[in-house]
Amino acid sequence: MTEIIPVNSTTIQLAPLPQSILPAISQFITALGIPREVLASEEEIECAWRDLPRELRSIPNINLKGELIIKMCIAVSGGLFDSAINYAWNAAILQLREKVKNFGLEIVSQILSKNFEEKHLLELQDSELLDICLKLNLATEDGYFFLDQCRSTRNNFSAAHPTIGQLDDREFIVFLKRCVKYALAESTSPRGIHIGTFISAVKTSRFTEGQCSLWLERIDATHDAQRDLLFSMIHGIYCDPTTLEPVRLNIIDLCLPYSEKFTSSIRSKLIIQHSEYRAKGDIQRSAISQQFFDKIGLFTLLDDCEKHTIISKVLNQLWNVHQAWNNFYNEPPFAERLAELSKKGLLPKNIQEEFVEKVVGCYIGNGHGVSEMAKPFYEEMIREFSPKEIQHMVEITRKNSSIVARRINSESSCRIKFIQALKLIDASSVPDTVRVSYENFIGIRRSY
User: Fold this and answer.
1) How far apart are the first and last CA of the chain?
2) Alpha carbons 77 and 72: distance in angstroms, whole number
3) Which residues contact 275 (CB under 8 A, 6 or more apart)?
4) Which of 64, 70, 26 is nearest to 45 (CA)?
5) pLDDT tens-digit profile of 97-155?
């Protein structure tokens, strides 16, 4: 049998299939009186074998190219694609489990608000594991979608269950490519922060320089959702009138070097929390919160914070409805409400980016269509975008972590609608900084 020869961690060479293997398979099947069609054809086997190295080279961690991947390759050499996808899927599932373990089972337990130990991880169905990976940002929205498709393919076409049909070489390679790209290709994974330990360290005593650096590294290594939670929590601790000054200094030490990297989500949460203090008439916490924003260099975020809270709430309601299965029917009233607010000049600068991204995201849809009744409101808002908002719109596709960017870059229907949205804008309002990108999108050719 042929073998996998590892040359280095990123290069794989597969020895050519000997002339004796494929004829031997045909002879064996004939001897048993079984139709040759029960296995992949020789052409399909050769094509799959030829394409295997390209996919295997995408796996950076040599440790992941182990027993299951070898068995997969051997199954391919014999035309057993139904067995091969089972081995590939099992390798992907084992890697996803490892990512969850690396993140921290205690931290997963905190996020899920229930007991979660290794036995629970092993007992998870594949669909449940994918759901947890999505919640922990261990899988992107795209990754979750394609891996879930692989799960369905594995359940219906692999040797693990009675099959409803056969896969050809192209379908197998696509299956393997998705398992590699969204599970096996990424050898690193974020590590979560144990919230109890983190809060205890912040409250216990004044940070040493090394201690502060360590926590900043851990904050940087975790995922966006937990990072949002941590900064929101320590802002609350800072604003507590009973909090001691050394604890407040620890919080500033964590926030100050990170404040420039605050995402729009973190900034939004901090502003909303600050607004809640004002709304409740909590003068002490409100004043301390103002001090917090001043010390970390974000005092300007407090301008129009009440307006920010109103717009943010409507945006979140609209986006949550847009993400739901029945969004086509439920989007219009939320889109209308947002259009009314944007007309009244209630849009503060620090929410413009979020506003543009969600309006454009709702307008282009999700690949399955758009809400036609809400479309006029989105078009109205897009036509009235300011030059700065137009810049945010043109630059959306550059954001690797953006759901909207991924839709535009991966879904042809979404990209077409994005170009249609750009054409709603008055070209004279497009800033020079993004004019070339804008013209490339809408197909304008310059004459020199």
Assistant:
1) 62
2) 9
3) 305, 306, 308, 309
4) 26
5) 988 888 888 777 766 767 888 898 999 999 999 988 887 778 888 888 999 999 999 98
